[in-house]
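User: I'm writing a short report section on ligand binding and want a predicted complex to refer to. Could you take this sequence and zinc ion and write out the structure as C-alpha cells? A short remark afterwards would be nice.
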Amino acid sequence: MVCEKCGNPIKDEDRFCTYCGEPVSKVNQETQQRNLNLDEKWWTRFSKVLNITLYIPLLIIIYIVWSLNSTTLVGSLFGEYEYKNTYGKAFWYSFIVVLIYVAIMRIARKLLNNNF
Ligand SMILES: [Zn+2]
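Assistant: Sure. The C-alpha cells for the complex follow:
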C-alpha cells in the first residue's frame, strides 16, 4: 500500500510512513486488505471454473479415441475381414491422451500465471 499524504510505498505492518511520518490509517489498510481478498476470491473462483471448462474437450477427445480404437478391422487367414474388440489398445491410447492433455494444460496454466 501507499502513504495517503506523500504517496510513497509503506509496508503493511508499518504504523507510520517512513518517508513523511504520516500515521497509516487503519481504516484504509483494512479496506485495501478486504479488496485484495475479494480479488483473490474472484480469481480463485474464476480459475476453478476455467479448470473445469478446460477439461471438457478431454472427455470428447477420449470418447473419439476410444471409439476409434475399441474395435479394429482385422483380416483373417482366409481373406475375410472382421471387427475385433481391442479394448486394451483403446485403454492405453486413451490413457496416453489423458497424460498428454493434462501435461499441456499444466504448461499452459504456468505460462498464463507468469503473464498475470
Ligand atoms: Zn508519507
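A remark for your report: Residues 3, 5-6, 8, 17, 19-20, 22 surround zinc ion (CB under 6 Å). Residues 26-69 form the longest helix (44 residues).
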